[in-house]
Design goal:
459 residues; 3 domains; Phosphorylase Kinase, domain 1; single chain; 7-stranded antiparallel beta sheet; 18 strands; alpha+beta; glycogen metabolism; Aminoglycoside 3'-phosphotransferase, Chain: A, domain 2; 6-stranded antiparallel beta sheet; binds ligand LMANGFYV; binds adenosine-5'-diphosphate; 22% strand; Mak_N_cap; Maltokinase; Kinase-like_dom_sf
């Protein structure tokens, strides 16, 4: 079944803007679609397409869009309908759907991984024995759409399909592979991955991992703890049943252990004072770019610049290594035994080169500290804030930030609280990123990072 690229480009222009993972919502861009591969023809054709978006300022982004082509409308896929068009012969109508949501065809990825297939320049790499692959298991796309699209096979494995793609090995695959090879306890095993070769370069398309079936994510656990505290107006955080501090402590230990594994797998370096100044310059540039998009940042901008410049003035070396890059409570899962860290892709807004650069491990600590702040604050921003709940929220945040840092310090030679200026600047840099993220994706959450930036600016 053949369809025209121009027609696919036309339907994707409308459809992309409605997808959570599409980062170009706030800018006008033209869409060009190209077909990369046909994964299978049976029972319905599955084609991997790339949408190349060119924005008005010349920036280009690439998105992966796996499509299933059906010759009849499929009611069960109405919610992931992409568009309809005549086939190239002009004889019959083809109905396009997001293939990752079509249980009838998702097994094609597993079959290709089992066979270690090479299809139209796509290489399917298997890291475990064929009988460890969840072949035949039904698939379910996760409903919480995030930066990418993940589908679970049975309760055995989860396949993450990267949406915004670019040349280079995706750090999620690279790091999961390296840490699994080291026997790291705090990551899910990497079962396989899919890479395309485009113009001689590797482009990571998807990865398959063990699925942690009984795990609960850190965001759910932390926000439940906050809710318990808010419900008990007169009790303090350490007196309420759902206290999270011992989990925060373990999470700090787990983060430090993952950092030690990352250092062992990829090495370490010291950023010289000049390197540090260059990083600070990048943070200032990021702040300037954010100010154009989020006007609400203006009142804190000069204090934030002063905070960043204090880091440049430290004049000391800063230990650096590979890091997670976007660590927050939604990226950690609590299994019955331990915390698992997920999603080593780094911040989706950064290029792969930036995401693979060695950085201060405090970047991850700062990310998690921001997340405690989010967990405590977002319920207040939903309109229920009183002086009492504000105080409780601050208490919860302080207690869990301290417990996390103490846990980290126990497993590492460095206590994050000793690098206070750098840690504060990294928190601010993260909150600036979050302000842009929220303005683009969840404007009602924008007050959460803004409130923190006011606090950081005033300290
Ligand atoms: N190995 C896993 N086991 C269980 N759940 C997982 C696993 N990997 C991811 N998840 C779930 O899928 C969600 C999205 O995964 P993540 O890697 O963070 O994707 P994204 O890059 O789209 O944010 C996570 O928040 C988690 O709930
Ligand atoms: O999709 P990803 O998980 O890669 O990360 C992006 O989305 C996150 C929200 O889902 C966003 O995280 C922010 O909100 C979280 C609560 O929903 C909070 O725990 C985080 O601390 C906060 O940064 C993340 O920044 C973004 O990259």
């Amino acid at each position: 079944m053949k369809i025209s690229s121009a027609e696919v480009g036309r339907v994707l222009s409308d459809w992309l803007g409605q997808q959570r993972w599409y980062a170009g919502k706030s800018r006008a861009g033209s869409v060009h679609a190209r077909q990369l591969a046909t994964l299978t023809e049976d029972p319905h054709p599955v084609q991997i397409w790339i949408a190349d978006i060119t924005y008005e300022n010349g920036d280009v982004e690439h998105y992966q869009v796996p499509l299933v082509l059906r010759d009849e409308p499929a009611q069960q896929l109405d919610h992931v309908f992409v568009g309809a068009m005549l086939d190239e012969d002009g004889e019959s109508t083809v109905h396009l759907y997001d293939a990752l949501h079509d249980k009838d065809v998702t097994g094609a990825w597993l079959d290709a991984l089992v066979a270690e297939a090479e299809i139209d320049g796509l290489r399917f790499v298997r890291r475990v024995a064929p009988d460890e692959m969840p072949v035949g298991e039904p698939s379910l796309a996760l409903s919480a759409e995030q930066s990418n699209t993940s589908i679970v096979f049975g309760d055995a494995a989860i396949m993450k399909t990267f949406r915004r793609i670019e040349a280079g090995l995706n750090p999620d695959i690279e790091i999961h592979g390296a840490l699994a090879d080291l026997g790291g306890e705090h990551v899910a095993n990497l079962l396989g991955h899919v890479t395309a070769t485009i113009d001689g370069e590797p482009w990571s398309l998807a990865m398959l991992q063990d699925f942690m079936v009984t795990a609960t994510d850190g965001w759910k656990l932390a926000t439940t703890s906050v809710r318990d505290l808010m419900a008990e107006g007169d009790l303090h955080a350490d007196e309420v049943g759902g206290d999270f501090a011992s989990e925060a402590h373990r999470l700090g230990q787990s983060t430090a252990q993952v950092h030690a594994d990352l250092a062992a797998a990829f090495g370490t370096t010291n950023l010289s004072p000049d390197d540090v100044r260059a990083r600070v310059a990048a943070m200032l540039t990021r702040l300037d770019a954010a100010l154009i998009e989020v006007a609400e940042l203006a009142p804190v901008a000069s204090d934030l610049r002063r905070l960043y410049e204090a880091v440049a003035d430290l004049g000391t070396v800063v230990p650096a290594q590979r890091v997670h890059g976007d660590l927050h409570l939604g990226q950690v899962l609590r299994t019955a035994r331990r915390w698992i860290l997920l999603d080593f892709e780094g911040e989706p807004a950064k290029s792969i080169i930036e995401r693979r650069a060695l950085d201060s491990p405090l970047r991850d600590v700062a990310g998690m500290l921001r997340s405690f702040d989010y967990a405590a604050r977002y319920q207040l921003s939903e309109g229920e804030g009183t002086a009492q709940t504000e105080a409780r929220s601050r208490e919860w945040t302080t207690r869990n930030r301290d417990a996390y840092c103490a846990g980290y310090a126990e497993e590492s030679s460095a206590d994050p609280r000793e690098g206070a200026v750098l840690l504060r600047a990294l928190e601010a840099d993260k909150a600036v990123y979050e302000a842009v993220y929220e303005a683009r994706n969840r404007p009602s959450w924008l007050p959460v990072p803004l409130a923190s930036l006011h606090r950081l600016a005033a300290e």
